[in-house]
UniProtKB/TrEMBL annotation:
Gene Ontology MF annotations: uroporphyrin-III C-methyltransferase activity
Protein known as: uroporphyrinogen-III C-methyltransferase
Keyword annotations from UniProtKB, A to Z: Methyltransferase, Porphyrin biosynthesis, S-adenosyl-L-methionine, Transferase
This enzyme's EC code(s): 2.1.1.107
Organism: Seohaeicola saemankumensis
A biological-process GO annotation: methylation
Top-rank lineage group of the source organism: Bacteria
EC class of the enzyme, as a word: transferase
Amino acid sequence: MSNMFPLPNAQWPVMNPGSVWLCGAGPGDPGLLTLHALNALRQADVVVYDALVSQEILDWAPQAHLEYAGKRGGKPSALQDDITRRLVELARQGKRVLRLKGGDPFVFGRGGEEAQTLIGAGIQVRIIPGITAGIGGLAYAGIPVTHRTVNQSVTFVTGHDATGDTPTSLDWDGIAKGSQMIVIYMGIKHVGQIAARLIAAGRSPDEPAAVVVSATTPKQQVLDTTLGRMEADIAASGLEPPAILCIGEGVRLRDGLDWQALAVGLAPVPRPAMAAC
């Protein structure tokens, strides 16, 4: 273990037999993995991983048995209760278990649910945060979720609840009025309903919006649109999840901050000015 990372006096946590580490793998780019996550990958006996965890990341655990437990909306997926029971089972077998999730386990990742069950079963748990797509994915698209002169508040929202429908427990009027930047996870399926609620609550249909698909990966695509056109533009583009939706004036900053386009000599195309109300 002492030779794993060339850092002086680093004391890296040891994964004990019979424990489970709930770990965020970041939004996709293997380089966005944390050192604690890499440390966990090198120690685990079993890695129980999600659909958005890349093979490049899994390759850092050559000694581990890999178990797929991906959940994707609208596709055959493992049941959450079955996943959690499997984590308990593996830990009780004395395995060093790494539960590896895309993004951050505590940001729309059900990590809290899994941790509660594991702790209730008397299993030692460690939480390793990861970079969530709503921040890291938008940064790769050239969109800062906060900016001192444009947007000083951001709200992260899930696009569906436990039933798969648009969340009814959310105060959409409050979100529309109270946040300059709205970032929506898992929102493509219900984008029309979400946009309609935000517009009904007072957001302009001309407000800048962006859809970032497969963020931070080589497959990343960014759709520049507006709140009012977002549903139609997504349908016309054929884009599919995983995606982050972003709504707010801060999206305009992408015009000059699309650093990936600039790196290959492409000039970002400025948006047209927003019509005066």
